Amino acid sequence: MIRTTLFLSLFASTAAFAGHRPFTLTPHHSAAAAPGEGPVNYYGGPVISHVKVHVIYWGAGVDSGTQNQLKAFYTGLVNSTYLDQLAEFSTKVRSVDGREGTQQEIGRGTTGQTITITPVNPAKNLTQADVEQELEAQIASGALPKPDADSLYMLHFPDGYGISISFGRSCETWFADHEVYRSAKFGSVYYALFPCDSYDSSNFATLTFAASHELEEAVSDPMSPLQNEPNIFPAGWLRADGQEIGDLCTSTRSSLHAGGVDYSVNPAWLNSLGGCNVVDFQ
Description:
Blueprint (H helix, E strand, L loop, with lengths): L6 E2 L14 E2 L16 E2 L9 E7 L5 H15 L2 H4 L25 E8 L7 E3 H14 L9 E6 L5 E4 L2 E2 L7 E7 L3 E8 L9 H17 L16 E2 L15 E5 L2 E5 L3 E2 L4 E2 L3 E2 L1
Parallel strand pairs: 4-5, 4-7, 6-8, 7-11, 13-17
Antiparallel strand pairs: 1-2, 3-12, 8-9, 10-11, 13-14, 15-16
């Protein structure tokens, strides 16, 4: 998430498999290693091979300017060299504990549906459990497409919503977040939360940076371990202290050129480079 120092945080509810450590735009430091240093390791879990982004608006109040720009941004992002760089996080390798990998490769993705839902729960102060219950209800009703192994629901909220998760309240202590929960009916449901700046198109560059951050980490580590727990299966690719590939590169910026527009995006840590891949993506 993005905190008031603005960070992207990742922490799952008790219904979820996993939750993630905070990502700070002003990077926080760990006793294990400083941000910007790798490598990231593989812990035996799945990745998202060909991400399918469903853009979901939580009610009718998301800024129209933001909506007009988001579809083009996501379309460009998932079919670009930004996704190509993640190919090195194949799971056709053994994990750090010797476990056989899930035999997946990462390639370019697609955009799925763009949907404005009418929430069953009308509250504007939500918990993570509320969000997951809403997703479950919307999928069950057919309002949202059923998830498959590549589906990632990107949830954008209107002004006035507050979401409370382990790290605090949205827009006060965090900015965006990627998560997973286990549905008895639908399996693993991957999603990301964007309750801040979706309603203000003047801050669109911050939103695209956050969205690219969440997407690259969801793709390479959709089920990372709970905070303060050891990195073990079913985690994907992350550093020994729990930092993911976007967290290590939040002090840098890259651009994505797509459809004649330049977008601000978060570079990824690549083991092959021993650093952040700060390039212009196409």
